Target: 4-hydroxy-3-methoxy-5-polyprenylbenzoate decarboxylase
Amino acid sequence: MNPRRADLIAACGEATATPYFIYRLRDAMLSDPTGRQILRERPRMTSETLRLPYLRSLPENSVGRTYAVWLDREGVSPDTRDSVQYIDDEECAYVMQRYRECHDFYHALTGLPTFVEGELALKALEFLNTLIPMTGLSMFAAVRLKPAERERLVSLWLPWAVRSGLSSKELINVYWEKILEKDVDELRGELGIERPPDMREIRRMIREQKKREKQRLEQQ
Model:
């Protein structure tokens, strides 16, 4: 009901991920060489480990630069993710923490913004990729969308999420910190992630169209 209560979303994610789903995600990491390396080293994503001045200095189409540009545009930082509190297994708690901290990289990779329409599109992709129940339960927030937004979700974003979510590799196994200089289009191809239409641009075009129609009516 309130997508800005990140603490409650986090608690819901942890409570519904156990006992089965978080173990499935951990096993997906254990079955992958990069996933196993991440579990061994347990890196954390913060403004100390991901220094924004360095990321902004990377080539324009690099993963790190794309991530930094997205953070700057949306006004968020790597330090905004809550710590896991309700998963007892230490390794599984780290897997949930890793998923949570990687979320903004998924945003940057897809270009989806943080307002509700963008979050729902990304959550649909995450559900098909991770099977974490909270990502699927988030779709109930579609009732908060305006009719036009809900129509776009059904006609544009959900078909995109299904295509990419079913064809993509396990995103939890991406060691983002080690591929910051990689070309982001190349990474999308390797992961099987189709870039969706620019949500902000679509909304801007709709606003301008409505403005022109209003002006036309006023002139009549």
The chain has one domain: 6-219. The chain has a mean pLDDT of 92. The chain has eleven helices and no strands. The first helix runs from residue 6 to 17.
